[in-house]
Specification:
The chain contains four helices and twelve strands. With 209 residues, the chain is α+β, with helices and mostly antiparallel strands. The strands form three sheets. A five-stranded antiparallel sheet has the order 10-1-2-11-12, covered by helices on one side. The chain has a five-stranded antiparallel sheet with strand order 5-6-7-8-9, with helices on one face.
Length: 209
């Protein structure tokens, strides 16, 4: 699957992901296809986990929503993903069934969001979480969470560096994650009056671009 993380620390938020796509036992690395699991929508960056079919769908859907795509608060994200769910059904033919005892229709989407308002996670029943420190999704998330927990309070590390360490741990131990690591950082709204993107980077786990 993948390792994707979000981190909020100081005046900065960061989102990062590995670059491996798998088809059963077959691995498709960045050497063969430019796999990018993080994409921009307005002033947000979004990372997805799950089937590769989600990526073109969600890039097209969210980018095409215009002003209807509001991701600036937990409630905004929830309302936006209600609209996303309806369009996934009517325009993209999503299979909304996971289990027989599902309480709601499933959107089949698990994603992380980073923007000047903070860091958020969205799960398949439109559950939205607003995180204070960090979080991860994908098959390598437990390794990433442990690594980020271990280094988060180190004062010399900013949000982007903590995020990179998390994904690097996923790459080290999860068979379905591999470099290069893609990291995007954003200034928190109100941190210094700025809401601009602070910086982007993409390097693999041995330091090569």
């Amino acid at each position: 699957m993948t390792t994707c993380v979000v981190v909020k620390k100081g005046a900065e938020v960061a989102i990062a992901a590995d670059a491996l796509v798998t088809f059963g036992d077959t691995r498709l690395s960045r050497a063969y296809e430019r796999n990018q699991k993080v994409f921009p929508v307005g002033d947000s960056f979004i990372a997805l986990a799950g089937t590769t079919a989600h990526f073109p769908v969600m890039r097209n859907l969210l980018s095409g929503m215009g002003d209807e795509c509001r991701l600036g608060s937990r409630d905004d994200v929830f309302r936006t993903f209600l609209k996303v769910h309806e369009r996934l059904k009517t325009e993209y033919f999503i299979n909304t069934k996971e289990d027989e005892d599902d309480p709601y229709e499933s959107s089949q989407i698990v994603c992380l969001i980073a923007n000047p308002a903070g860091i958020f996670g969205v799960y398949s029943y439109r559950e939205v979480f607003s995180f204070d420190r960090f979080w991860g999704i994908g098959s390598g998330r437990n390794y990433a969470l442990g690594a980020m927990h271990a280094v988060y309070d180190r004062p010399e590390l900013d949000a982007g560096e903590v995020a990179r360490i998390g994904v690097d741990a996923g790459i080290e131990f999860d068979k379905s994650s591999a470099g290069p690591i893609e990291v995007h950082t954003v200034r928190l709204q109100g941190a210094d009056g700025s809401t601009a993107v602070a910086g982007n980077a993409a390097t693999n786990n041995d330091g090569a671009a």
